[in-house]
Design goal:
single chain, mainly alpha, about 70% helix
């Protein structure tokens, strides 16, 4: 749908506006919450979903709050699945 809309837009200014908004949305509402989720689960946070939701709803404020307040001190483990407890 976005490609069809961009093809239909003939004004360069309008195209730049839509392209800028798409870049903002992908960065602020996809990439940053994705990083928060991956970092929180990799560090073993029990509230990864809550921090991800906060960073999606309030992109800059949520990411800064996670980094300052909610980031666990544990080392990051790539591919760690903390939901399965092994004894």
């Amino acid at each position: 749908p976005l490609i069809v809309m961009w093809i239909a837009v003939t004004d360069v200014g309008t195209f730049a506006y839509f392209a800028g908004f798409a870049l903002y949305f992908l960065t602020a509402h996809v990439a940053l919450p994705g990083w928060v989720y991956l970092d929180a689960t990799g560090r073993g946070s029990d509230s990864a979903a809550a921090w991800t939701a906060l960073s999606f709803l309030l992109p800059v404020v949520g990411v800064v709050a996670y980094y300052v307040l909610g980031r666990p001190n544990a080392a990051y483990e790539a591919g760690a699945d903390r939901r399965v407890r092994r004894e």
